[in-house]
Design goal:
With 404 residues, this protein is an alpha+beta fold. The chain has 16 helices and twelve strands. The strands form six sheets. It has a two-stranded parallel ribbon.
């Protein structure tokens, strides 16, 4: 039985390797059309191997991780990158998902969403880096849990970034414990930054926030939780300082200045933005809400519940409602009943009104995930603003929010 499993695993690895060889190269951004926003989003590491490989030595850890473990911490697999022979073997249960060699084969076939790996001829993983898609793409689970067709722009609410980073062999146990405390679907972009050679502490203790979806952003403006800047500002902040890309970023408000040449991030921001702005908000599934209740909830949203005071017009946010659209209109944490800790670590010290897009697909809610479901959101604002909504009205509001 053991020999048979080894044979099957070897055949699986060979099949994926042949698919890779026949294509010539994996579909990285460099191999795609220059400034292809989708390719940049899905495959471009911006040279962040300098953090993930050279500094954290994550390639050593990833080489020992089985597909079963990877799926358990929220890593997704793109079924469209797999040859039909491999899909058939998976369906037949002939692939050993506890074998780390299969993980390397998946990386070589470029089937692991958001993770780029270089595997040499001896089958050794020598380099690893991440892309935007790691946190901001999911799959539809069409094949099985964690394996399916890509859903770009969806928050990977299963991804346990902290647990993954804690696999690094160079981090001390106290640091690993802090990362492990984040939990699935959360990340702390104010905890540290990478300057190209060292990880620089920013704030302690860590205050992780939920990984947000990035679909439906067209026309929103100042898209981060605290409105620090527009999309490309945040892409630069994350791409350089968080992902560890080889590029430049500076914000005197945060005391961060990173300069690296060549800059592999800034020239790609425009194309990346174009792709992101084209990601549409997914529509609610048929039968996922009560239409009559949602109709009543919509009236409440616009009137008695006063939700539309801040969640304005088609973007459902007031962030551009100030006298100067180049300056975000924001709210003090106390005004909206939110913990100020994360905002205090940002450039603005305030929160922007969240644009309500595809809500049903990305619980939990609020920047810190403190509202487990939509009813908890309604309850929060009912208490904060003294709305005195009845249970029936709250239920109607929830049904309306499911439609957005």
């Amino acid at each position: 039985m053991i020999a048979m499993r080894l044979i099957v695993a070897t055949a699986f690895t060979y099949a994926l390797g042949m698919a890779y060889a026949l294509s010539g190269v994996a579909p990285t951004a460099e191999a795609a059309k220059p400034m292809d926003g989708q390719a940049i989003f899905r495959y471009d590491t911006f040279g962040d191997e300098q953090l993930w490989t050279d500094t954290l030595r994550m390639h050593e850890a990833v080489a020992t991780v089985s597909p079963e473990t990877a799926l358990a911490v929220g890593i997704k697999v793109d079924v469209d990158a797999l040859p039909q022979s491999v899909i058939a073997a998976l369906k037949a249960g002939q692939v050993d998902l506890q074998d780390p060699a299969v993980t390397l084969a998946l990386l070589k076939a470029n089937a692991v969403v958001g993770l780029q790996g270089t595997v040499d001829e001896a089958g050794t993983l020598t380099r690893v880096g991440i892309t935007c898609a790691l946190c901001h793409s999911s799959v539809d689970n069409a094949f099985t849990q964690g394996i399916g067709h890509r859903l770009d722009g969806w928050a990977n609410t299963d991804l346990n970034v902290g647990a993954i980073v804690a696999l690094s062999p160079v981090l001390d146990e106290a640091t690993k414990t802090g990362f492990r405390s984040w939990g699935p679907g959360k990340y702390d972009p104010r905890h540290h930054y990478f300057d190209g050679s060292s990880i620089i502490p920013l704030n302690t203790p860590s205050v992780p926030i939920v990984i947000p979806p990035i679909y439906g952003l067209k026309g929103v403006g100042f898209e981060t939780f605290t409105g620090d800047g527009v999309i490309s500002y945040w892409n630069a902040y994350v791409g350089v300082g968080q992902m560890g890309g080889h590029g430049s970023f500076s914000d005197p408000r945060l005391g961060i200045s990173i300069a690296q040449s060549p800059d592999l991030v800034t020239p790609k921001l425009a194309a990346l933005l174009d792709y992101q702005l084209g990601l549409k908000t997914p529509k609610p599934a048929k039968g996922s809400f009560d239409a009559a209740a949602a109709g009543r909830g919509g009236e409440l949203f616009r009137n008695e519940a006063r939700c539309s005071t801040c969640h304005q017009r088609s973007t459902f946010t007031d962030v551009l409602s100030g006298p100067d659209r180049r300056v975000p209109f924001l709210h003090d944490p106390a005004e909206v009943g939110q913990d100020p800790t994360y905002a205090d670590r940002s450039a603005t010290k305030q929160y922007r009104t969240t644009p309500l897009r595809g809500l049903v697909h990305h619980a939990p809610y609020f920047h810190d995930g403190s509202a487990a479901d939509l009813m908890a959101v309604v309850e929060h604002y009912d208490t904060t603003f003294g709305l005195h909504l009845t249970p029936a009205q709250k239920a109607d509001l929830v049904e309306y929010l499911k439609t957005l």
